[in-house]
Every structure is written in C-alpha cells, then in structure tokens.
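Action item from last meeting closed. Structure (913 res):
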C-alpha cells in the first residue's frame, strides 16, 4: 500500500503511540507524526511496522473534538479517506485527519488488520468464555448454580417452581428446620440474577437478623445492608434511607416506629420477604400495627415471600389472613375457605385414582377427560389444590431425619400449691424458687451427667432463663449462656456463638421461647424442655432447633416435671394424646382447638376425666392425621414437591457445574490474564493478584490472596474457602470482562496440515448473538444464543466441520511478529473478504434462528395465556394481573427477538507451513 501525506496509520509494533499522520514522504522513507504522544518517527517504506487505518461502514469512530459517530459510508479522494457519518440530525463528511489521535480498535477485524493480535491461548480463552456463558444462560438453572447449599430435591423443586415465576407471591411453610431460609435465598438469588427483582426488603424477628445476614452472604453471596434505628437516622433531611440500598435486612420491630413504616412504604421494592410471619399478630377483632403495615406493603410490592413453619400456630383464621395478603382476590371469604378445605380429600382421591391409571368419575368439567393422566393430575393440583400459593414440605416425605427419643424425668412433689402450676417461677420469689423447685437441682445433675455433650435448655419466659443461667454459672460451675429477649442482639449472637464453640464453648444454652424459633442448633443432640409451651406448634418449634437439616445423630428430648402437677398433665397430653415429642404433627392447632377447654380444666386440677381426655385426644389425633394425610397434606405434598423433578434438577445442576471443567477453565483464565494461582488439589487453589495482569478479572482478590474451590462438596465442608462457582459474582465478572475486552479478539498462527500445501490460509471466526431485552423475559430459552464458529479457507470454502477448534488449538504455533505484519499487509483484501463472507453466512443463520424463535415463543405464550385464563375461571388463585402480564410479555418478547444482533467476537488467521 502506498503512502500519502495526511493519511492515518497505526504502529502495530507500538500501539501506545496512538494514531499517526503521514507528514513527510521522501523516496524510501516515510515520517509519521503521533499527536497523542507528540512524537515523530521515520520508517523505511518497504518494512515500516505500520497499518493503514481504514474504518468501514457501521464502525464507530471518535473525533478529535470528542464526539462518537457512526460511519455510514467511506469515500476516497486522492488517496485520502472521507467518512460520511451520522452527525447530529444530519449526515456529515469528515476527513480522516479529524479522527481522534487515541484510537481504540474495537473490532476483531480492525485489530487483525492493524496486526494487533494476541496469542492462541487468549483466542481459545475468548472462545471458551463465550461458550460457557452461553451454556450457563440456556441451562434454565440460572440462580440455582453456585450457591453454597447441598442439593436437596424438595428445596430445589420449590426454588425452581417459585423462582421462575414473575413476581412470585407464596407462603413457604415447610415444617420446622427443612430449610425455608435456604429456599427463600434460592428464589431470591434466581430472581436477582434473572433481573426480575432488584430491590429487596427482608423483615425478620430481631433475634434472627444476624443469622439471615450470614446465611445470605455465605450461601448466596448476597450482601444485605442491616438497617436499625441508627441507620435510619443517618440519612439527611428529605432523603429516604431505604432508597440508598438495593438489598435491605431489618428487624420487624423497626416498624413499630411509624416513621420507619412511612419510609419503607414510600420506597420502591420488587420483593418483600417476611420470616416467622405468624408472629405478626392478627385476630379478627384486633389486628396489630405490624400486620397492618405488612398488609400495606403487600398491596404495593409485586413479589412477596412469607415464611412460617407453623402456619396455624395462632389459628386457621390468622393463616387465612396471611394467605389473603398473598392473594386477596382468591382468599376473601373465610367460610368458603373452610368449605374448600373439606373438599381436599375429594381431589386427593381423584389424583390417586388417576395415578393408578383409572378413569375416575367426578372429574371437574374443565379437566380434559382425554388428556394424559399426568396432565390431569397437574391440572387438578393447579386448579383445585393450594398449589400456587402455599408450599409445605413435611419431614416425613423429605426423609433422612434421625429419630427423636423422649425421656420423661418425674420429680418428687413439693409441699406447696405453687408447684402445681405450669410455671411456678412466675409465682414465687426467684431465690426461693431456685432453692425449692426440684427441676433446678435436677437440671444441674443432668447437665453434669451429660458433660461434655452440648445441651439446649428451653423455657417459656426470659426471667426463668436469666435466673437459671446465673444459677448454673455461679453456683453450679456449669459453663452456660443465656439467650432471651432482654439481651441486646449482639449479646444474643455472642451467646449463641459461645454455645456453638466446640472446645472452649458453653455446655448449655438457656433460651426463652424466642430461642425456640428460627435458630440453628443442630450441632447439639440433647434438648431439655425445662417447662412446656401452651401450644403444640410452639413445642414443634422448640424441638425443631435440633431436629433440622444437618442433624446427623439421634435426638434426646428430656422433660423434667413435678409429679402430680399441671406440668405432668401437659406432658402426658402432648405425649400420650398427640405423640408430639417423637413425631411432628400438622394438626396441632386443630387438636388444641378441639380440646382446649377440657385441657385447661385438667391443668387447673386433674380429675378422673383426664384418662378419657387422653384417649379422646389420641383418637382425634389419629383421625385428624389420617384425614389430613389423605386430604390437605397429601395435596400439599404433591404440589410442594415432585421428588423426581427435584432429583432431576439436582443431577442437572451437578452436570452443568462439573468441577473438572470449571477448574480447567479457571486455570486457563488465570494463566492467560496473569492472575497467580497455586493449585491445592483438583478443585481448589490459592489465587493472588499477578504483577503483570493483562486484565483485572478478579479485582476483589485480597492483597495476600485467598483460597477458592470450584467444588460444591468442598465448599460445604470448608466454609472458610470461597466457592467460586459459575455464578459467583467474581466468576461472572471475570467472564464478562474477558468478552468485553480486546483480549483474544484477533490471533495469527501457523501450523502443518497434512495434504495442504504451505502458505494456505484458514480463517477461524467466532460469532455471538446478543439480545437487548430484559432478562426477565427469558427469551434465551427460545432464541438459541449459541456462539457459532466458522472456519473458511482462502477461497471461502466452509471447513468448520472438517477441522475442529480443539484440533487447531493443539497444533497451531506462533509466528514472529515482523512476519505477521507483512503477511497481513499482503492479505488485507482476502482477510476483509473472508470476514465479510463469514458475517453474511452468520447473518443468514441468525435470521432463521429469529424466525423460528418468534414462532415458538408466540405459540408458547399463547398456550400459557390460554391455560391461565382457563385456570382462572375455576381457580381465582390466579390473578388477572398475571394474565395481563403474560400478554405484555408476549408483545415485548416478540419485539425484542427482532432486535437480536450478531457480534464477531474473534478471528484467527492460520497459515499452513
Ligand atoms: N441445602 C442446604 N445445604 C446446606 N445446609 C442447609 C440446606 N438447607 C438447610 N440447611 C441448613 O439447615 C438448617 C435449617 O435451615 P433453615 O434455617 O433454612 O430452616 P427453616 O425451615 O427456615 O427453619 P425454621 O423452621 O426453624 O425457621 C440451617 O442450619 C441451614 O443452614
């Protein structure tokens, strides 16, 4: 190519010089001025390391006066280029002299033509990154990968079912300790990654704030900001502190303050999560301020997750009131709801009959009698069960829990009527009570006998816990800690941590009832119920502290009681009437409702009718259990978990996570970009920032390095290591940084290829498809965004199938830099033509993909809209808003599909030797 004064050239030997201008021509020498560095260089014309900069139609250009414009056409006059560009509102002509002196070669084509190329490892990394990103996106498992959790089918099923919904509104009511926090975390993670939710508020009882904060961080890499009164005060006049953070966690108590309530209502949220929601008091005649606040929040926030293990702890009507928060249209008539509950058995027998392959009578008219039985069952559950709103897994169906052993400890009666009460300590002076109550001395000797086993002691009241703890500590020399509502949050967490400490920690933690909800103490095997709570569900909550996921050993439940007292009466009623110490029961509230009066009478003073009460309770319990297990619980079990699907999700996650592939990719990533890594094993390594990093892919790696693992199993065993799964924010950042950079965009190499004469050329190109649509539309499932590799020879023949990328990688070798620029200069035209060919080839392919996607997407959306509309006719659990939303999604999706664009990600020129 010949030179002319005023032309713009780039030095491929030293791209730091920026874009030069030919200023002098003198026979065989050319002088170029580089304004960016204010230097002038002179080269021999026959081997100057210079590349002519010639932009193309569609390229972006930057002007000297800082404007970014798009090239519409390129003209040449007297060897100088004139760019026709889209200026402000009109076309404009721009001489190449006006190009910015700091050039940024943005496309692989430009970089290859300017001989700005990288080694093969960088090209291969770029290809691998594009392919992995695509694989992850289209897996349908987004949000479920990379969380530090064991793959438990019941949780995966719920997380997948709810997580994929738009603005999900559900009650997560798994039995105690089955992992509702984890389910909520997975749903949230999924919603955040899909872009469905951005701003989230979590409200939990004060005693659980820290636990939630830690669980969200260590299991999901979600950093919540903890809000308390002080944090609310910090914000300046007129600004809303809740708007400063995207993810906010706070105690429900914070909203006792009307200002806090007003601020939270004023902020915009996508999702609200409320733990232990049964604690927000609701009664037909008196609704608490907290509940009213929740009602207002629920009415304006699209996504709502309510969590409780004991939905009926404060009665069926309160349970109904919470369902009404989720879906006021569906749950508006309590009497009708009670009536519906009585129908559950009917639907349950129908689903059973369908399962057995029968053709049962009495199928509702809207269920297609000719449809496959699985579809009929799904439709029944969907339309007539509590399917869409309520999820409740039972430990009996989840399985794998250890057995519970109840050990009653009768203690001699005391000669004072006070000790006939359930809670004698409320009626006597503390000092006197500590001396007189035989349970106190028993507790001391029991703890000594159990040493060094960890023991959780639960009693109803904070004052009891306080008195017992100081007695144990000061007078009996037992290492213990107290946990009750009179302690500050920090003190409570400190007490729980002291108890958890294996070597030097407390042997016993003495909790009031608040210790009985939400906390994790599954490292202990012994539970002492110093007294008993008045509601069966509270007893369930207490036992659930130990009997929860992660408990591997048999659990011992010790119940001391004074013989002949109300304590014995209540213990026997729970034990012989409901068998509650050994197995959980979802009918607790119903049973209590039935026998409350008779029980209270017996608790005041046991009489001859007690044995009959026990028998009646046992009979009622058996019937209730049977009825529920055949009706409501059975339907719930079916809609809360499809074990097969849960299992399949687990397998699919393991397959896609594949630590071997991830480990190899991580090593490649570090090697190419210059991050130091020291491998500790197949799946773990220490990462350190390298001295000469090409790209900042892991900006958050600390100065002195950190240990990471790519294996979920290892991550569960080593909580101090970072689980660098595919969805870890570091990994996502690393991958998008690679693709967003110029690294590996252009590469040149040589190889020997049998039967192919030396000097032949191969062009390997990689295209990706991008879709500028909200992630929440989920269009990736319809439009294959798979990257496409195209391999052409010098004449444009497609060799993609004949010679794989891997084979090229194995054989390709370096070519000296000087030689490359000469070759590139000679092949300039061929390079341009082959890239054009490949672009045209892929544009055709993309058009076909788009057409097919639009058809599939349209059909599926129509089907879904029709299905939901039909469902809505029989099951008002489906909101009109959901259907309207689907219609809008369909339209938006079809428009967005048309905007898909292809991008040339990389090009490699291989010359045969
Ligand atoms: N998939 C999982 N992988 C690892 N640990 C888990 C998993 N699911 C639950 N856990 C652990 O099991 C315990 C119980 O889980 P979680 O606190 O979520 O239960 P919950 O149903 O909310 O309990 P509660 O009914 O007491 O409120 C916690 O220690 C939690 O970290």
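Sequence:
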């Amino acid at each position: 190519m010949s030179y002319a004064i005023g032309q713009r050239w780039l030095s491929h030997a030293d791209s730091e010089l920026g874009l030069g201008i030919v200023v002098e021509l003198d026979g065989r020498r050319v002088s170029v001025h580089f304004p960016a560095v204010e230097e002038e260089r002179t080269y021999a014309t026959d081997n100057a390391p210079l590349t002519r900069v010639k932009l193309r139609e569609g390229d972006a250009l930057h002007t000297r006066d800082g404007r970014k414009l798009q090239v519409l056409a390129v003209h040449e006059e007297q060897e100088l280029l004139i760019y026709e560009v889209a200026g402000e509102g009109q076309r404009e002509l721009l001489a190449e002299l006006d190009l910015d002196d700091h050039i940024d070669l943005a496309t692989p084509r430009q970089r290859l033509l300017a001989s700005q190329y990288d080694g093969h490892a960088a090209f291969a990394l770029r290809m691998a990154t594009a392919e992995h990103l695509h694989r992850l996106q289209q897996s349908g498992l987004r949000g479920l990968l990379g969380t530090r959790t064991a793959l438990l089918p019941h949780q995966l099923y719920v997380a997948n079912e709810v997580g994929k919904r738009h603005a999900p509104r559900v009650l997560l009511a798994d039995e105690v300790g089955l992992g509702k926090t984890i389910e909520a975390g997975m749903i949230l993670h999924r919603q955040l990654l899909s872009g469905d939710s951005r701003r989230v508020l979590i409200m939990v009882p004060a005693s659980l704030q820290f636990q939630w904060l830690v669980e969200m961080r260590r299991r999901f890499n979600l950093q919540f900001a903890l809000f308390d009164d002080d944090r609310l005060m910090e914000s300046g006049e007129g600004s809303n502190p809740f708007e400063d953070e995207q993810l906010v966690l706070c105690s429900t108590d914070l909203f006792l303050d009307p200002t806090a309530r007003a601020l939270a209502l004023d902020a915009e949220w996508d999702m609200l999560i409320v733990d232990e929601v049964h604690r927000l008091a609701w009664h037909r005649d008196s609704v608490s301020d907290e509940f009213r606040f929740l009602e207002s929040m629920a009415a304006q926030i699209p996504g709502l997750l309510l969590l409780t293990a004991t939905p009926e702890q404060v009665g069926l009507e309160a349970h109904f009131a919470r369902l009404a928060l989720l879906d006021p249209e569906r749950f508006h008539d309590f009497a009708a709801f009670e009536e519906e509950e009585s129908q559950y058995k009917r639907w349950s027998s129908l689903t059973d009959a369908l399962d057995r392959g029968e053709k049962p009578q009495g199928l509702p008219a809207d269920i297609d009698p000719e449809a496959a039985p699985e579809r009929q069952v799904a439709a029944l559950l969907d339309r007539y069960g509590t399917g869409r709103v309520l999820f409740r897994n039972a430990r009996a169906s989840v399985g794998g829990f250890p057995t519970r052993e109840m050990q009653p400890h009768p203690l001699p009666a005391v000669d004072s009527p006070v000790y006939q009460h359930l809670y004698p300590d409320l009626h006597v002076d503390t000092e006197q009570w500590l001396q007189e109550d035989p349970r106190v001395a028993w507790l001391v000797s029991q703890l000594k006998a159990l040493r060094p086993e960890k023991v959780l002691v639960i009693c109803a009241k904070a004052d009891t816990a306080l008195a017992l703890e100081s007695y144990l500590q000061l007078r009996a020399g037992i290492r213990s800690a107290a946990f009750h509502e009179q302690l500050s949050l920090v003190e409570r967490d400190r007490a729980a941590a002291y108890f958890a400490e294996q070597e030097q920690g407390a042997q016993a933690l003495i909790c009031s009832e608040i210790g009985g909800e939400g906390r994790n103490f599954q490292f202990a095997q012994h539970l002492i119920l110093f007294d008993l709570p008045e509601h069966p569900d509270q007893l369930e909550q207490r036992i659930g502290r130990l009997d929860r996921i992660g408990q591997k050993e048999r659990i011992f439940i010790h119940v001391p009681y004074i013989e002949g007292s109300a304590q014995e009466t209540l213990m026997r009623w729970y034990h012989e009437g409901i068998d509650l110490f050994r197995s959980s029961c979802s009918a607790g509230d119903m049973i209590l409702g039935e026998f409350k009066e008779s029980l209270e009478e017996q608790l005041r003073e046991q009489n001859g009718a007690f044995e009959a009460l026990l028998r009646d309770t046992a009979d009622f319990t058996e019937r209730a259990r049977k009825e529920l297990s055949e009706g409501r619980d059975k339907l719930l079990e079916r809609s809360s978990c499809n074990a097969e699907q849960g299992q399949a999700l687990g397998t699919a996650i393991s397959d896609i996570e594949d630590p071997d592939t991830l480990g190899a990719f991580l090593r490649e990533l570090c090697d190419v970009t210059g991050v130091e890594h020291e491998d500790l094993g197949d799946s773990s390594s220490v990462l350190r920032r390298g001295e000469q990093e090409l790209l900042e892919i892991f900006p958050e790696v600390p100065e002195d390095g950190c240990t990471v693992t790519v294996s979920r199993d290892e991550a569960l065993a080593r909580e101090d290591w970072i689980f660098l799964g595919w969805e870890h924010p570091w990994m996502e950042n690393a991958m998008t940084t690679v693709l967003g950079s110029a690294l590996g965009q252009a590469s040149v190499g040589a190889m020997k290829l049998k039967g192919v004469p030396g000097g032949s050329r191969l062009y390997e190109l990689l295209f990706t498809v991008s879709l500028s649509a909200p992630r929440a539309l989920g269009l990736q499932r319809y439009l294959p965004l798979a990257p496409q590799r195209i391999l052409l020879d010098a004449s444009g023949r497609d060799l993609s199938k004949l010679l794989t990328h891997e084979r090229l990688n194995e054989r390709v070798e370096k070519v000296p830099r000087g030689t490359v620029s000469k070759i590139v200069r000679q092949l300039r035209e061929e390079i341009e033509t082959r890239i054009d060919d490949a672009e045209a080839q892929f544009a055709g392919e993309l058009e076909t993909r788009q057409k097919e996607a639009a058809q599939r997407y349209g059909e599926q959306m129509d089907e879904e809209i029709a299905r939901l509309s039909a469902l809505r006719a029989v099951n008002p659990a489906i909101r009109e808003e959901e259907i309207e939303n689907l219609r809008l999604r369909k339209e938006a999706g079809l428009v967005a599909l048309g905007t898909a664009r292809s991008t040339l990600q990389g090009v490699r020129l291989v010359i045969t030797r």
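Note appended to the action item: The mean pLDDT is 87.
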